[in-house]
Inverse folding.
């Protein structure tokens, strides 16, 4: 039995402890906002928060997060993610949208740690989040916009 | 040149049969150096043997002299691109533990594994080894100014028992382990210190 919290709810799961968290979120808990892109920690689509830090759920066996607090895109809350969401919709960042929950999680984590990130900070934090629609320029702008909202 | 001479030349030049070429580099125990009478010479030879471990990709990948790690047996730049960061632990928003957990994780959808250990981080830049000669690595390793304030005894402990050092021999599927064993590496370190911790030229 593996126990952890997801978006504020306790779960005791009788599943293989080697099963990746992403499988559990999508197939067992039906939280499909978190996406599968590569399964090998190369694209960032599966990013969730584990104990407040971004984590690639495709390479996280649930046996490794016993007792942890997991937050998915569905459960994100707080001033940073609200600012990110507003900035994202203001300039229509997403194209197909597949990568975007991962982008938003990483952008939020960055703003939680660096309230006014430089272009370099953004590049470094977001380098593991690939967008096949190449929305990178809008992502960068939206992160700067969100940072300004948070300052004001 | 006769066939025999040719065969002898190939043999003497150390051309190995295929099965032997496939086998990994090994390291010798301290006793293999007992024949060197001079202490300093023996000590330097022991360090040179330790160097087979220190310069393996398992160690060098995370002892870079630049801004970020390399990966794989062929020491390619890390993918995705990552930076060292202030704490040798990546950038805010994408620290090492975004992908690297407390243990190696076999991939579910592909061959290979994501390496992991608790803790997991780069060696500080003062302990970068890539491109350095063994002699330079040796004097750096002994220098408390650069080695994180370690005495030789603490260095022995680190080499012989540290978990992240030990990961080098248990690196997960898709990576060649460091040569020998951590136990042997510890024994070589002990013998190197006991013979005066001399450095190769
Ligand atoms: S699906 Fe996890 S990083 Fe691509
Ligand atoms: S919006 Fe399509 S992959 Fe990023």
């Amino acid at each position: 039995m593996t126990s952890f919290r997801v978006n504020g709810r306790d779960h005791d799961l009788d599943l293989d402890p080697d099963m990746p968290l992403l499988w559990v979120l999508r197939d067992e808990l039906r939280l499909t906002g978190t996406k599968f892109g590569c399964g090998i920690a190369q694209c960032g689509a599966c990013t969730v928060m584990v104990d407040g830090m971004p984590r690639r759920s495709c390479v996280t066996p649930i046996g490794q997060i016993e007792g942890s607090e997991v937050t998915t895109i569905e459960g994100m809350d707080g001033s940073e993610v609200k600012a990110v969401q507003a900035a994202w919709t203001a300039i229509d960042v997403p194209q197909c949208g597949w990568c975007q929950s991962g982008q938003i999680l990483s952008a939020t984590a960055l703003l939680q740690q660096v309230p006014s990130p430089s272009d370099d900070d953004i590049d470094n934090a977001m380098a593991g989040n690939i967008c096949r629609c190449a929305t990178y320029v809008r992502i960068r702008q939206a992160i700067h916009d969100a940072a300004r909202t948070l300052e004001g | 040149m006769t066939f025999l001479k040719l065969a002898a030349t190939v043999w003497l030049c150390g051309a190995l049969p295929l099965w032997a070429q496939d086998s990994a580099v090994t390291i010798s125990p301290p006793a293999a150096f007992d024949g060197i009478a001079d202490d300093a010479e023996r000590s330097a030879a022991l360090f040179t043997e330790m160097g087979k471990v220190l310069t393996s990709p398992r160690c060098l990948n995370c002892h870079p002299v630049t801004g970020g790690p390399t990966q794989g047996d062929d020491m390619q730049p890390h993918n995705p691109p990552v930076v060292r960061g202030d704490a040798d632990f990546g950038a805010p928003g994408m620290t090492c533990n975004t992908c690297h957990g407390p243990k190696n994780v076999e991939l579910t959808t592909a061959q290979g594994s994501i390496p992991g250990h608790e803790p997991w981080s780069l060696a500080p830049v003062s302990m970068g080894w890539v491109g350095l000669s063994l002699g330079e690595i040796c004097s750096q390793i002994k220098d408390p100014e650069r080695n994180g304030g370690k005495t030789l005894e603490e260095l022995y402990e680190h080499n012989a028992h540290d978990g992240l050092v030990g990961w080098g021999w248990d690196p997960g599927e898709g990576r060649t382990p460091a040569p020998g064993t951590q136990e042997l590496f510890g024994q070589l370190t002990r013998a190197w210190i006991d013979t005066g911790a001399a450095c190769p030229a």
